[in-house]
Amino acid sequence: MAYTLPEKRQEAADANRALVLQTARGLFQAKGFDAVSIREIARAAQRSVGSVFTYWTGKEQLFREAMGRPYFTDQRGAEAFAVLVEIAPEKAHELRKAWEAAPAAVGA
Fold first, then answer.
1. How many CA atoms lie within 13 A of 94 on its CB side?
2. pTM of the prediction?
3. Judging by beta carbons within 10 Å of its beta carbon (0-12, 13-18, 19+), is residue 66 exposed, middle or buried?
4. Domain count along the chain
5. What DSSP character marks residue 47?
6. Are 33 and 63 in contact (CB under 8 A)?
7. What pLDDT, in 10s, does the model give residues 30-55?
8. H helices of the chain, where?
9. Are 52 and 62 within 8 A, CB to CB?
10. Domain span at 29
């Protein structure tokens, strides 16, 4: 299958986005929301800070996507977690850690 230049660019952009998202998830898990910066995420992913802002408007939006996506199967749960991330990011991090330790205990 022959790829056109826009398809190759889109594949590269998708791969970059996925790499940053995975890197951010790992750092947020290890250190928590407050201890991680966009600069640190970019450095760990070997990408520029600007490339992170290509996909997300800020750390809160990146955290919401990195930490919320795998844990909710319905829109209401994802929205509730997004609100928690905005008003209490450290509590959201604690909830996620509890979820990973015992999914049944937090309603998985």
1. 5
2. 0.62
3. buried
4. 1
5. -
6. yes
7. 888 889 999 999 999 999 999 999 99
8. 5-31, 38-45, 49-55, 59-68, 75-87, 89-101
9. yes
10. 5-106
